[in-house]
Amino acid sequence: MAKAPSTKKAVSKKAVRKKAVAKKAVSKKAVAKKAVTRKAPAKRAPSKKAISKSKTLNYQVRYQKIAEAAYLISEQQGFVPGNEMDNWLIAEKEIDTWIKKDKIKLVE
Questions:
Q1: What's the confidence (pLDDT) of residue 91?
Q2: How would you label 59-82 residue by residue, b for 16+ Cβ within 10 Å and e otherwise?
Q3: How would you write the chain as a 3-class SS string?
Q4: Structural domain spans, the chain
Q5: Average model confidence (pLDDT) for the chain?
Q6: N or C: which end of the chain has fewer CB within 10 A?
Q7: Who has greater pLDDT, 16 or 59?
Q8: 57, 104 contact by CB (below 8 A)
Q9: What is the pTM assigned to this prediction?
């Protein structure tokens, strides 16, 4: 028995190249924003009570401010023992000067 001739043609393998697809530039449309108009609040002169309240300080807050200032002074000196009273007096003088300069009233 003889072999019958093959009907298939020899196909050479070619490298298949993918074509780069050109991308279209997509432009985004700017969305128009509506202008929002707001009414300005009516301007009122601050009341005398509001001014006096903002310029007051009670003695407890003064004491806390002096304590914080004395701590910061002590920290700058490296917490050297024996200077606590001096640091407190310096801090008290600084806070009292600040109160006097800003015309703050002390209240109980």
A1: 96
A2: eeebeebbeebbeebbeeeeeeee
A3: CCCCCCCCCCCCCCCCCCCCCCCCCCCCCCCCCCCCCCCCCCCCCCCHHHHHHHCEEEHHHHHHHHHHHHHHHHHHCCCCCCCHHHHHHHHHHHHHHHHHHCCCEEEC
A4: 61-107
A5: 74
A6: N
A7: 59
A8: yes
A9: 0.49
